[in-house]
Amino acid sequence: MISKELSRSIIELRTAFKKNDDARDAGLPREMAGVERLDNLSYGPDPKWHLLDLYRPTKVIKPLPVIINIHGGGWCYGTKETYQFYGLNWAQRGFAFVNPNYRLAPDVTFPGELDDVDRYIHWVAEHAAEYNLDSNNVFLIGDSAGGEMAEQYATILTNPEYRSKFGYELTNLKFRAVVLNSAAAFPLDEGMVTGAVAAYFTPSIIRQQREQIMAENYIQKNYLPTFICTATADFLRNNAAKLDGFLTAKKVEHVFKMYGDDDHPRGHVFLISQKDELAQQATDDEMRFLQEHMA
């Protein structure tokens, strides 16, 4: 049972985020030329949250490079429907885009959401041949809270000691790179776990599982090539800059990009918008990065 104050914080966050997302995506089409969408594929036992959509370019014979998305939302908000337009854009660009739901706080606490990420990654591995997915060219993308989970999962993939803390098993998927958009890196930095976020990273979880949460302690030189994206008015801009410096010190291959300027600022996860020319430019940059890392 969570407190009334925490419950109110979650409701306020969900209401504000949904209002912004609905305004951002108003009028966008659910169908795009040259893209097939397969909706509500089940990847686990929960009939509401263990569902994913798969968007694929049509008229492509060879296996498709795969983007596996981890959506943002402060660990307590967001659905695949919020990311459908972003995913359809990637499918138009030639990628299969896996767009899942996962369970949200307060129904789960850390690492319950990451458990769902692991579950749907295994689903991709098991169904790659069925859906013409190239298991040799797989990429992780996450934004905000999803960016933090993408960072964690990339650490799980590349560091057996960290992976052992979760009990996850590797699949046969070959992950080539990770994209972190306005990622909530260093989640236990001062001031990060406040308001609704405390429903996922509860005080007892932080005390007992701090080492699991702090993936940065386990990032090594063999970490996945990483694209870090932020913006001038992104409230997590400093987290992205800190991660840039951190990966530089670890000698991890990465790109750091900050978009916008004083006259044309951009905010948190701006590149999810399909109506923003600069967002499309950022996606162009990320696409080139992924293409450069394909086998």
Automatic annotation (TrEMBL):
Pfam families: BD-FAE. InterPro entries: AB_hydrolase_fold (IPR029058), BD-FAE-like_dom (IPR049492), GDXG_lipolytic_enzyme (IPR050300). Its EC number is 3.5.1.9. Keywords: Hydrolase. Residues 52-234 form the BD-FAE-like domain. Gene3D superfamilies: alpha/beta hydrolase. It is an enzyme of class 3 (hydrolase). GO terms for molecular function: arylformamidase activity. This is Arylformamidase. It comes from Lactiplantibacillus plantarum subsp. plantarum.
